[in-house]
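dude i think i finally got it to work??
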Amino acid sequence: MTEQKIVLSGMRSTGKIHLGNYFGALKNWVGLQDAYRCYYFAADWHALTSDYADPSQIAVNTLEMVVDWIAAGLDPAKSTIFVQSMVPDHAELHLLFSMITPLGWLERVPTYKEQMQQIESKDLSTYGFLGYPVLQTVDIAIYRAHFVPVGEDQASHLEISREIVRRFNHLYQREVFPEPQGLFTPTAKVPGIDGRKMSKSYGNAINLSDSPDVIRQKCMQMFTDPQRLRRTDPGRPEVCNLYDFHKLVSPPEVQERVARECRAATIGCVDDKKLLAQILIDYLEPFRRRREELERDRDTVYDILVEGSKKARERTAETLEQVREVIGLDYRKALAEKV
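look at this
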């Protein structure tokens, strides 16, 4: 029987999931569970690379995030759900990979330079931040993962991971690690309520856990067609932030009707916001209901993470056994050869 290919992905431990996280990654994760052997992890060590000065919320954020994962459909019976720091083998392989990764490879990573310039409120001039791609490579390689689900615009992020594992395999003349490939999954454009990319840092996000009242309030704040100044002005749904949300959650017939009525000025922006709010409320209701069940028993979520991390360590232990052997740190073998 052919072994299922392994899929690996994770999210930084930043707390509750918003619609951008869901449509950008989590929805696809859920859909992959039946076709692949999936490992999904909360990247709490990655969160430390920028939040090391105040890590007080990382554990809470991890639990909040995983509650949303499970509420949205990740099934611990189908996928291994774990926390990065609960699998210490990541740290050992990170050390070993850091020995073979040229400094220039890390300094040329575009996101490193961009974030150093953009995030001025935090001191990111640390080894941990520079070495972020090495740890990211370890997260993939230690499970000998074949695929990482990404959008096509993120494919280049995997290249340094392929370079590092290719260098390891070449140096030690053994194919310990497969070169991870992008599993291109559909990623929807998810704007924030102000039209920019949805992000917690922008304060423009709609969370999966938001109450109906909060969703209505946020929908009423949404930006619309800037040229539609009066109720009687024809609208342009193709440039309207509101319509981008309809394309995500509304049935095709509703999308068509809203577009037609917007162009004919037979529906106003306020009425459209009320309509969208109710559609969003109905769409997220199953998630909120499941989340409430999990909230009543947080120990269950913790137990899922402990069990998932234990299962993850079974895979990582196999990998490190091979790694130690090929780089010459298998002392039992060395002793036997000496004798």
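Strands lie at 6-12, 37-43, 79-83, 147-150, 181-184.
im so relieved honestly
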